[in-house]
């Protein structure tokens, strides 16, 4: 008998602050979907940005999730311990001549855009004008040898030509045509960190065999890039389920930088897990 492939979900917070009600919503969404689908639930700590992430926040994530009654499968994948996996993916893209070093500073990019008189925007902000793509190969190497810091960008045009049209499926939105071109030449390895969110998340979901990605609608657009990277790196294609976001009384989306209600603050104020899960919109949650 052929056994059906297990469904694997994950919750993937960044330890750059304490979890707040928005995270509770996302974690509970993943946990309830896992219950419904009889799926496995994994946890991943997205800590590649070592300037913003802290071990104390990571420990607080485990504590807060346990307090909410959320259980996950061990081991937890900690991104900063897997830089070699991202390096391998970059090498794979480099072998296909899809990457180029970008030495530009933010200021230089802005100046170049200003000079061109056009300022095309993508979902992530201004689209990179492609300045460094024009640097001849020999000069690129020279600059690298001289120690100029550089990011690695994906040659979007070449990548799309290689893959042809791509599609992905979101449980709520249905079949979507991928439009990664809207982002321009995205950074896949930052100057200060040898990977990026887009690359690390795509590689990890494949390595962890996540086939049902639950995450907020704020990351809906990013999926266009992830779908492209999957095609270029020959990785399996999951299903996505982008969930709604929760907003505060003023209509602002809850985020760490907005001092959103931290779960531990609610706890200190005497709220119990049942009350907090209800506040997050999961009145009937039971672990
Ligand atoms: N680490 C991301 C965040 O905390 C989530 C990444 C993802 O689910 O793809 O917003």
Automatic annotation (TrEMBL):
Its EC number is 6.1.1.-. Belongs to the class-I aminoacyl-tRNA synthetase family. This is tRNA glutamyl-Q(34) synthetase GluQRS. Residues 8-278 form the Glutamyl/glutaminyl-tRNA synthetase class Ib catalytic domain. It comes from the Bacteria. One of its GO terms (molecular function) is ligase activity. Gene3D superfamilies: HUPs. InterPro entries: aa-tRNA-synth_I_CS, Glu/Gln-tRNA-synth, Glu/Gln-tRNA-synth_Ib_cat-dom, GluQ/Sye, Rossmann-like_a/b/a_fold. PANTHER family: GLUTAMATE--TRNA LIGASE, GLUTAMYL-Q TRNA(ASP) SYNTHETASE.
């Amino acid at each position: 008998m052929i056994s059906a492939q297990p469904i694997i979900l994950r919750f993937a917070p960044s330890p750059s602050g304490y979890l707040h009600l928005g995270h509770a919503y996302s974690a509970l969404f993943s946990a309830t979907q896992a219950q419904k689908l009889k799926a496995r639930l994994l946890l991943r700590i997205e800590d590649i940005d070592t300037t913003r992430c802290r071990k104390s926040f990571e420990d607080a994530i485990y504590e807060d999730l346990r307090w909410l009654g959320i259980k996950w499968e061990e081991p937890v994948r900690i991104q900063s311990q897997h830089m070699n996996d991202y390096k391998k993916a970059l090498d794979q893209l480099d072998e296909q001549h899809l990457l180029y070093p970008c030495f530009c500073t933010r200021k230089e990019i802005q100046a170049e855009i200003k000079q061109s008189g056009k300022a095309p925007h993508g979902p992530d902000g201004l689209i990179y004008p492609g300045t460094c793509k024009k640097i001849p190969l020999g000069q690129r190497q020279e600059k690298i040898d001289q120690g100029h810091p550089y990011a690695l960008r994906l040659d979007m045009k070449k990548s799309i030509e290689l893959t042809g049209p791509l599609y992905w499926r979101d449980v709520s939105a249905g079949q979507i045509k991928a439009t990664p071109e809207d982002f321009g030449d995205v950074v896949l390895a930052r100057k200060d960190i040898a990977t990026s969110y887009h690359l690390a998340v795509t590689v990890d979901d494949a390595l962890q065999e996540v086939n049902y990605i639950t995450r907020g609608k704020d990351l809906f657009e990013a999926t266009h890039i992830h779908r492209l990277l999957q095609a270029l790196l020959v990785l399996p294609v999951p299903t996505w389920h982008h969930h709604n976001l929760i907003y505060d009384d003023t209509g602002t989306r809850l985020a760490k930088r907005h001092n959103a209600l931290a779960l531990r603050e609610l706890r200190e104020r005497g709220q119990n897990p049942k009350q907090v899960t209800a506040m997050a919109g999961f009145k009937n949650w039971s672990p």
